[in-house]
C-alpha cells in the first residue's frame, strides 16, 4: 500500500534546481534510502517532505493528508505533519535528563501523564538505553545520544520517520553497530521511513529500496541487490562501486 507519495517535486535555489522532477512512492512500513553524493538534493527532498522548506512544483501526500500541492498552493505547516525527524546533529536538550528529553514531546502532544512513563520505558528499551534514563546528555557517548534522539522521535509514534545522515557523526566502528540496531528497530516499529545518506554501505545494509540521486534527479530506484548487481547508469555503477 502506498503511504508516502511524492510527485514531480521540483525546487530551485536561484537558477540551480536542487531537486528536479522527483517522484517517489514509499509503501506502508517500507524503508527507502535517498543515496547520492553531497549536493545531489537529498536533504532538500527530505526538507520538503518535512515542510522545513517549500518546494516550487509538485505534490507530496502521506496517506490521505496533503502535505504540499504546488498547483493548488497548499502547504501544510511542519508541526501539523505527523512526522519524526532526526538529523546528524542530534541535539538533545542539555538541561534535561534522558527521560525528560523523551517526556517533552509527549507533553507537547498532550499525552496523559499516566501513559507517558510506559511509553518512555518502551522506547528506551527498544534503543537499549533503559539504564541511562536519569543521565544528562553530556554524560552519554555520541552513539548513545544518537539513540536517545531516535527514541525521542519514536516515543510519539509518528506516521513517517525522516532521517538525514543520522550516523555520520559516529566513528566507523560505532556506525556499523548503529546500522544493525537501526535496522532492528525499524523492523520492530514498522514505521514508514525515508533515510538519507551518502554512504553506499549504509544504504545497501539498511534499505528495502534505494533511490540513487544525481544532480537533483532519481536515477535508479530499486532494492539494494538490484542496484548493486544491475546499476542503471554508469554513474550508479561508479558510485556504488566506490564503496569498496
Ligand atoms: P545533499 O543533501 O544531497 O548533500 P542538498 O539537498 O543539501 O544536497 O543540496 C542540493 C543543492 O542545493 C546543492 O547544490 C546545494 O548547494 C543547494 N542548496 C541547498 N540548500 C540551499 C539553500 N538554502 N540556498 C541555496 N542553495 C541551496
Ligand atoms: Mg544533506
TrEMBL record:
Keywords: ATP-binding, Nucleotide-binding, Transport. Residues 4-240 form the ABC transporter domain. It comes from Devosia yakushimensis. The chain holds residues 1 to 244 of 360 of the full protein. The lineage of its organism: Bacteria, Pseudomonadati, Pseudomonadota, Alphaproteobacteria, Hyphomicrobiales. Belongs to the ABC transporter superfamily. It comes from the Bacteria. This is ABC transporter ATP-binding protein. GO terms for molecular function: ATP binding. The keyword Nucleotide-binding applies.
